[in-house]
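Trying the structure run again after the queue cleared.
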Amino acid sequence: MHPAAEHSPLGKSSEYIATYTPSLLFPIPRTAKWAELGLTAETLPYKGVDFWNCFELSWLLPSGKPVVAIGEFSIAADSPNIIESKSFKLYLNSLNQTMFADTASLEATLAKDLSAAAGKPVGVRVRSLKEVEAEGVVALPGVCIDDLDISVSNYEHPRAELLRCNESLIIEESVHSHLLKSNCPVTSQPDWGSVAVEYRGAALDHASLLEYIVSFRQHSDFHEQCVERIFLDLQRLLKPEKLTVYARYVRRGGLDINPYRSTEDVQLPNHRLVRQ
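Done. Tokens:
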């Protein structure tokens, strides 16, 4: 368990406060988990963002009439802190009985509070249900590897040694799997997700990638660190010219978390999958 998480609201009985309380936000430094992966803030080999989508966002107009919307928050992958997810939910619920003059005022308040917690500017978009509904859902790019016939015996820890590639063959491809599962390091609740890998480098053996992804099944870690571990293990193996790894996790408590890590400085999409 991350030492800071012991003091977070996760796994504890919490009072739900319905009026604006920014102090509910609980930041957790990324440094400890980076250190586990052999990284520091100065040596991160990727760029990226964590997209958070909130489906339980509501506040009051000056007339007292409530509004519901969907919030999209983008937190830089190199921000000093992640925001503990239950504290995020409690904070958002504290807006339920709070009045805002307009959506712009709400967005400004969210950006101020979340940026203070993350330690770096956080992007905020408050979107109407109609707008998000019109976008629908998408499929992950490339080949789905989930139907490959594999034998699995390890579910406790990610095993990079399972990964194989053909170093003599350089290719560019996109592959994905919906069999990613890990556990919350504090509550042990399951975190379900889909993961996509896009790269140009030594040809990755798809069956070995699927075995590797399944090896996360009983692993306990935050969403962000699971994606970073996958990125680093693939980078070491493939020595790619470019590499992007991202996961789309199923929401819990009205929030989903979607970490993107890439060698490229690209505009990353935030499109929902069918399970989201």
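The CA atoms of residues 235 and 244 lie 10 Å apart. Worth checking whether this holds up in the mutant runs.
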